[in-house]
Design a protein that fits this description.
alpha+beta, UDP-n-acetylglucosamine1-carboxyvinyl-transferase, Chain, five-stranded mixed sheet, four-stranded mixed sheet, 15 helices
Length: 474
């Protein structure tokens, strides 16, 4: 990179940083040059979409958001460097990196790989509280930090605003291992007593609570049994990673796990994240509502089977072109070719269940899909109190919804979606559902304050443009 170009980039970045644009600047190493600049979006960034067009081409599913955030946490278990490949460049990852770097971790980007170099000791007095408050994933620091600090405090987590999301299942499980947790007004105070392996019955089959317990147990010598554990993709991802670190885990992919913990992990490890089934579902939804034939590559099929079965029963047509394995050697992938389809509402309600059921994060996509299905679709979102309310925003785009209660929404179809200007709700999946609807609406739409979308989708504009979507940043 020439010196002139670097000076020009420096000038542009200085202007962006000094103006009230709400942008954040990140850097990464590339080849032999110094740095590459990356400007990430904030609440003040908006998308302009000219929808109503047939799409074409192929889109590749990238690394998993939920896999990335748990492995960023799990890297703290390792006293040697950890390199992660296929890491999505999303706001949730950036927030966690800001927290990790503030307490002493060194992070080095090389394209989409990320090397994490641990400090001699973590300094939680220097913790970036503002970044920590903007992500619910901060809760997963408890399991790893137990093995580095006798006591510490973490601020209450943020992330999506989806109603009452209790953290008690984390605490019930961790306390069985000898962890003491006090809840203060704005923080959790964590201290460890005598850590020992145990048999743990999970209060609920929570992905993040299961992950927290696995990380805590991984460095407690002996066998910890976890019953009613989540078997979801991000939990399996964590187990695959820990196995590479030398931790034996029985029952991966089932609801009973046995973690054979070891006193320390000091292994320079390199691991490639598996692909994100929620990203794959996004592009399935895009294809369905725009009635387009596109190819979705590297879709993790074992975490999409229930979704595809539900869609088949609604009339969706598709073809599996190829089957292969992810770079982690464990996750099964497929390429999917979608076909324009005439949909009907399902005979039964659509609801999520713990894996291997329909994924809770994929459930909102069925709301926008239902606007194009003949008949009445009932979506039951039993986990979150606010998400169904956010989905009524589809009415502004021509949808016909009836909110039965905080957990159930009826959607009548098919309707002709129309363009509109909407402020994105403060929740990742409902926000991206509105974006999908705008792709089908013939005309100009604006989706404002898109930070929730950028928390979970890497280069969504670039991928959509690759399919022929006319989309830009305002």
């Amino acid at each position: 990179m020439s010196g002139v170009l670097l000076q020009y980039l420096d000038m542009c970045i200085a202007q962006c940083a000094s103006a009230n644009y709400g942008v954040k600047i990140h850097t990464e190493t590339i080849s032999d040059d110094t740095i590459k600049y990356m400007i990430t979006d904030s609440e003040q960034i908006h998308f302009e979409i000219h929808g109503g067009k047939k799409l074409h081409g192929a889109v590749e599913v990238g690394g998993s958001k939920n896999g990335a955030v748990v492995l960023l946490s799990a890297a703290m278990l390792n006293t040697a460097p950890t390199t992660l490949y296929n890491v999505p460049k999303i706001e949730e990852v950036y927030r966690l990196l800001e927290v990790l770097e503030s307490i002493g971790m060194e992070a080095v980007w090389e394209k989409n790989s990320l090397t994490l170099i641990p400090p001699v000791a973590y300094d939680l007095k220097a913790l970036n509280i503002e970044s920590a408050k903007r992500t619910r994933s901060i809760l997963m620091f408890i399991g790893p930090l137990l093995h580095s600090l006798e006591s510490f405090s973490l601020p209450h987590s943020g992330g999506c605003k989806l109603g009452s999301r209790t953290v008690r299942p984390h605490f019930f499980a961790l306390e069985k291992l000898g962890v003491k947790i006090q809840t203060k007004d704005s923080s959790w105070v964590v201290s460890k007593g005598k850590l020992a392996p145990a048999e743990i019955i999970m209060y609920e089959s929570s992905d993040t609570a299961t992950e927290n317990v696995i990380m805590a147990a991984s460095r407690i010598p002996g066998a910890t049994t976890i019953k009613y554990a989540s078997a979801n993709y991000q939990v399996q991802e964590l187990c695959f990673f820990l196995e590479q670190c030398g931790v034996k885990i029985d029952g991966i992919g089932t609801t009973t796990l046995v973690v054979h913990g070891k006193k320390s992990i000091n292994t320079a490890v390199a691991y490639s994240l598996s692909e994100d089934p929620i990203v794959a579902m996004l592009y399935l939804s895009v294809a369905i509502v725009t009635r387009s034939s596109i190819t979705i590559t590297r879709a993790p099929i074992e975490f999409l089977e229930k979704e595809l079965l539900t869609l088949e029963n609604m009339g969706f047509r598709y073809e599996v072109l190829k089957r292969y394995v992810s770079k982690n050697k464990r996750t099964k992938l497929v390429d999917i070719k979608t076909r324009p389809s005439i949909l009907k509402a399902p005979e039964d309600k659509i609801h999520a269940c713990p894996y291997p059921g329909l994924n809770m994060d994929n459930l909102p996509f069925f709301a926008v899909i239902a606007t194009q299905a003949r008949g009445t679709t009932l979506i039951h979102d039993w986990m979150y109190e606010k998400r169904a309310l956010y989905l009524t925003e589809l009415d502004k785009l021509g949808g016909e919804t009836i909110l039965a209660d905080p957990h159930r929404i009826y959607i009548e179809g098919p309707t002709v979606l129309r363009p509109a200007e909407i402020v994105a709700p403060p929740a990742l999946r409902p926000a991206v559902v509105l974006l999908v609807a705008m792709l089908a609406a013939n005309g100009r739409s604006v989706l404002r304050n898109v930070y929730p979308i950028n928390r979970g989708y890497d280069d969504i504009i670039g991928h959509l443009r690759g399919l022929g979507v006319e989309i830009s940043v305002l």
